[in-house]
Amino acid sequence: MLSLVALQAAAGAVGLGKVGAAIGASLAVIGASMGIGKIGSSAMEAIARQPGAAGDIRTSMIIIAALVEGAALFAIVVCLLASF
Fold it and tell me: What does the mean pLDDT of the chain come to?
């Protein structure tokens, strides 16, 4: 109930588009951070299981993390442009 009142107050003062853009940008950041954390966790587990393949796993991890970060940055830019 309180969150609904706060959302209505924010929507009246700022505009519903800006509130939606802020929520979308925050969800993009949360999703990207969870994805990169999962990538790091899985890579460390894979390196622990096969230490000989550490270089290949690390390279793949960095490439995938960069792609996830790029997608998150694109989502944030789209959300910020939608607010104007």
Answer: 86
